[in-house]
């Protein structure tokens, strides 16, 4: 056994020496993916899937029909998959079935808000809308699956397609990982539509690109009574007001001014009459930072300030960081090597002036970061601006969000090309290792 093994390695090395195609990257065929993605066969199909999902938005962990659409299309393409993964998730495979493994991820969930755009494919579910473009993400990943399947013989490893539930709260990415679905995957790519970026353009950066985020809710308890006799009450409204002011000092005077952080109170509930001091007040909000250290520091100080400042006003406070409902999102941090890979692929496909490789980070959050904690990962923004739309409508989480569907071809082609060329490169690395080992013998 060991004898024939040695023979095999030597044999492979001979082949490697004789065929330069394996030792110098020939990625030219993967650059045609954009043409494939623009053919009516692929483009119209992606558009129809996107519209179908747009009409029937489903919230986190309820993406049953979306998941069904995905599986039925995969089935038609002859692509094997695992289901259910994390309740509604689907994990599909294109390629050899052997290492190296590279993953591509799309999220599937919608938001609990009413669509305000009047068009033929408007959401048919009152109070639910794909206002973060996850309908487009799903159709682009299916587009990539279709293109990769067309070129399956040239794929030098396995592409793992991850259709993930519950990005907008609920920690879908974490659940996918907990199920071991990404075992042996050595890199993962994800994208997000950007309605402010023109078609055919992409933006990203190496290192931190989005913040870590957490939520909190606090109950500040006093003693209710007649508003005209405050000395007989302990006023939680006054206490909560001071708590909110004090919380602002954490970012303004405890954080490094060069280390971006946010603490926002977005909820303040208390009282029901003009002449009654209530028993308690509830406040809540979000906090953001770009490093674990700053994030943990914020968490600790938010709790201390709320409890301490409430006590100044003789109130008691409890603070809940709601981690059961929504686990903290770590910061989204792009791997440096994958950044280089992304820039190569994107510049080859789109041209150097269409690739912003030094995008300004922002304080939004993405649960893609959970993958990046265990696998080198890379996240980028994809242009879907529709020139005919007014600027104020063109934002994610807006009830007026519209996207330029021409962007779907670019997303699908980039997904496919990032994965296929990654595998090609790493397959060669594997051979490189064998060669080196042999040289040492
Ligand atoms: C693809 O090939 C071109 C030259 O043919 C090369 O410049 C580029 O770096 C390659 N891209 C990747 C991702 O290997
Ligand atoms: C992942 O790697 C482990 C250890 O090398 C191996 O036992 C397992 O079969 C691999 N899983 C897949 C899906 O290839
Ligand atoms: C705060 O908690 C202490 C200890 O449980 C209790 O004695 C006190 O009455 C509470 N004060 C308010 C304002 O709820
Ligand atoms: C950040 O904290 C998380 C959770 O405690 C941990 O898994 C992760 O490795 C930390 N990341 C860094 C860069 O320290
Ligand atoms: C851009 O928006 C206009 C107006 O809503 C719409 O008619 C058009 O189809 C959109 N273009 C694309 C390519 O989606
Ligand atoms: Zn969103
Ligand atoms: Zn989103």
UniProtKB/TrEMBL annotation:
<dbReference type="GO" id="GO:0009850">
    <property type="term" value="P:auxin metabolic process"/>
</dbReference>
<dbReference type="Pfam" id="PF01546">
    <property type="entry name" value="Peptidase_M20"/>
</dbReference>
<dbReference type="InterPro" id="IPR011650">
    <property type="entry name" value="Peptidase_M20_dimer"/>
</dbReference>
<feature type="binding site">
    <location>
        <position position="134"/>
    </location>
    <ligand>
        <name>Mn(2+) 2</name>
    </ligand>
</feature>
<dbReference type="InterPro" id="IPR036264">
    <property type="entry name" value="Bact_exopeptidase_dim_dom"/>
</dbReference>
<keyword id="KW-0464">Manganese</keyword>
<feature type="domain" description="Peptidase M20 dimerisation">
    <location>
        <begin position="212"/>
        <end position="306"/>
    </location>
</feature>
<dbReference type="GO" id="GO:0005783">
    <property type="term" value="C:endoplasmic reticulum"/>
</dbReference>
<dbReference type="GO" id="GO:0010179">
    <property type="term" value="F:IAA-Ala conjugate hydrolase activity"/>
</dbReference>
<dbReference type="InterPro" id="IPR044757">
    <property type="entry name" value="ILR1-like_Hyd"/>
</dbReference>
<dbReference type="GO" id="GO:0046872">
    <property type="term" value="F:metal ion binding"/>
</dbReference>
<feature type="binding site">
    <location>
        <position position="168"/>
    </location>
    <ligand>
        <name>Mn(2+) 2</name>
    </ligand>
</feature>
<protein>
    <recommendedName>
        <fullName>Peptidase M20 dimerisation domain-containing protein</fullName>
    </recommendedName>
</protein>
<dbReference type="Pfam" id="PF07687">
    <property type="entry name" value="M20_dimer"/>
</dbReference>
<dbReference type="InterPro" id="IPR002933">
    <property type="entry name" value="Peptidase_M20"/>
</dbReference>
<feature type="binding site">
    <location>
        <position position="397"/>
    </location>
    <ligand>
        <name>Mn(2+) 1</name>
    </ligand>
</feature>
<comment type="similarity">
    <text>Belongs to the peptidase M20 family.</text>
</comment>
<feature type="binding site">
    <location>
        <position position="192"/>
    </location>
    <ligand>
        <name>Mn(2+) 2</name>
    </ligand>
</feature>
<keyword id="KW-0732">Signal</keyword>
<dbReference type="InterPro" id="IPR017439">
    <property type="entry name" value="Amidohydrolase"/>
</dbReference>
<feature type="signal peptide">
    <location>
        <begin position="1"/>
        <end position="23"/>
    </location>
</feature>
<keyword id="KW-0479">Metal-binding</keyword>
<keyword id="KW-0378">Hydrolase</keyword>
<feature type="binding site">
    <location>
        <position position="132"/>
    </location>
    <ligand>
        <name>Mn(2+) 2</name>
    </ligand>
</feature>
